[in-house]
UniProtKB/TrEMBL annotation:
Locations listed in the record: Cell membrane; Endomembrane system
Membrane-spanning residues: 61-79
Pfam families documented for this protein: ATP-synt_B (PF00430)
Taxonomic classification: Bacteria, Pseudomonadati, Pseudomonadota, Alphaproteobacteria, Rhodospirillales
CDD domains xref list: ATP-synt_Fo_b
Signal peptide start-end: 1-28
Record flagged with keyword rRNA-binding: no
Membrane topology, record value: Single-pass membrane protein
Domain of life: Bacteria
Designated name of the protein: ATP synthase subunit b
Source organism: Azospirillum baldaniorum
Family, similarity comment: Belongs to the ATPase B chain family.
Gene that encodes it: atpF1
């Protein structure tokens, strides 16, 4: 496509140069014809013309037209064979460079979009993994808390049962001591006040009956 555009431009420029050359040739012919019409006057005033500008001397017009045509033909050849192809090559290289730059830019854009998509995917995966880790840690903490709470409750219950058992044992021991002391006191009081000799078993049974009555 760039070669076709360059060739079209070269054809247009060659046509423009040819048209310019033809126009100049026609213009030179018109000037020559006009000069030929005024040749007698120019010959009559030869001395005046000889002292004027050389390019306006009708005798030099054919030579001037020859060199003008030769110059334009040479210029047209140089333009069509040397300058214009070089310009077309420069334009073609420039178009190809622009095309390469555009292709490279499009490729870099695609790579950037792919990298951004990969980064977004990685971030999404990292977020999901972090949320899973946080949920797992929270579940482990809750499980540890529940286990610790259950262990504390069991330890407290065991301590409470042990304390109650100790209290009950101490209470029974205290009751037994009170019962023994009360039986001795009852036998002593009965002996001193009533002169009765109460059996230890009877005194202990009486004290036990009173204690059981008080418990109920």
């Amino acid at each position: 496509m760039p070669n076709l555009l360059a060739k079209r431009r070269l054809v247009r420029w060659s046509g423009a140069a040819g048209a310019s050359l033809a126009t100049l040739t026609v213009l030179a012919g018109n000037v020559l014809a006009a000069t030929a019409e005024h040749a007698p006057e120019a010959a009559h005033g030869g001395e005046h013309a000889a002292g004027g500008l050389p390019q306006l001397n009708p005798a030099t017009f054919p030579t001037q037209i020859f060199w003008l045509a030769l110059t334009f033909i040479t210029l047209y050849y140089l333009l069509s064979k040397k300058a214009l192809p070089r310009v077309a090559e420069v334009l073609e290289e420039r178009q190809e460079r622009i095309s390469r730059d555009l292709s490279k830019a499009a490729s870099l854009k695609e790579e950037a979009e792919a990298a951004m998509a990969q980064v977004d995917q990685s971030l999404a995966g990292a977020r999901s993994e972090a949320q899973a880790v946080i949920a797992q840690v929270a579940a482990e903490i809750d499980a540890n808390n529940h286990a610790r709470q259950a262990q504390l409750n069991a330890e407290n219950a065991e301590r409470l049962r042990s304390a109650e058992a100790n209290i009950a044992a101490a209470k029974e021991q205290a009751i037994a001591n009170v019962r023994s002391i009360s039986a001795d006191i009852a036998r002593d009081v009965a002996g001193r006040l009533a002169g009765l000799n109460v059996d230890a078993a009877q005194a202990d049974a009486a004290v036990a009956a009173v204690i059981e009555e008080r418990r109920s």
